[in-house]
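quick one before i forget lol
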Amino acid sequence: MKIKLAAHFLLLLAFSAFMLSEAETQLKPHAIESFTVNYIQKFGNCTYLVVIKTSCDSKNFTRDRISIAFGDAYGNQIYAPRLDDPFTKTFQSCSSDGFQIDGPCATDICYVYLHRSGLDGWEPESVKIISPNSSPVTYDFNTSAPNEDWYGVNLCQIHPPPSPFEPSPPFPLNLRLLLHLLLISIAFPDCSGS
C-alpha cells in the first residue's frame, strides 16, 4: 500500500511540475506580428509613470528608437511613439529611465509591448508601470528586443488563438488540471488506505 501511495505522490508531483513549467513559459516576452496601435481614446485621461530598466548586457548607450504600448483587457491602450533621446542619454546600460505618459484611464494593465528600431541592439531588462487605477506591475524582459517588431508580454488572455494547423484550442490550465485529477482518481480508486 505504501508503494502505491508513493507512486501516486510521485505522479502528482511530476504532473504539478509540468503544469507549473508550462504556466511559466507563457509569461516570457515574445514578438507579435499582428499587433496594431489603437488611437481610440476612452473616457478620462490618466498619467502613468513608466520605468524602463536597461540590461547591463546592453551597449553603453543606444541610438535605437524605442516605442511602448500597454493597456488593459477592455481596449484602453496607452501609446508613446518615441521614448528615446540620444542627446539626454536615455537607455544607457545598467540604468533606469522614467517617463510620464498620458493616455486613456485603464483598469488593470495586462500587456506591454516595446518596439525597437535601429542597429544598436538595445536590451531591456524590465518595464514597471505605475497606474493611478491599479497596483504597479513589472514585466521582465531580460533579452534583446528584436528589430522592427513589437515585442512583449500579454497576460490579458492566458492562451493565444490557435494557429491554423491546430485542430482545437488547448484546455485552460484549471480545466486540464481537474481533468487529470479526475483521471487519476478513476485509475486509482482505492487510495484511501483501507
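fyi The two ends are 9 Å apart (CA to CA).
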